[in-house]
User: What shape does this take?
Amino acid sequence: VTATSGSIDITVDGGYQPEVISIPKGKTTKLNFKRLDPSSCLEEVVLGDFKVRKFLPLNQKVTIPITPQKTGEYMFSCGMNMFHGKIKVV
Assistant: This one.
């Protein structure tokens, strides 16, 4: 999935949907996480490369703006590092 409007919705339910997203370098993209899964494992999302750790309340949208300065692949995961997603910066 590619960010076209500068915003991407990510559903958190037994993992991340979509699991791989593509965003442009040097532009701010809003990642909108919405957690539908009651599992405590998924209640946090961690974007280590961007020094972000955010609590995701159930059934609420949490927006995390990121502005990557380098192309490449960046991982994000749940707080327990069991579920993973990938951000491709192009």
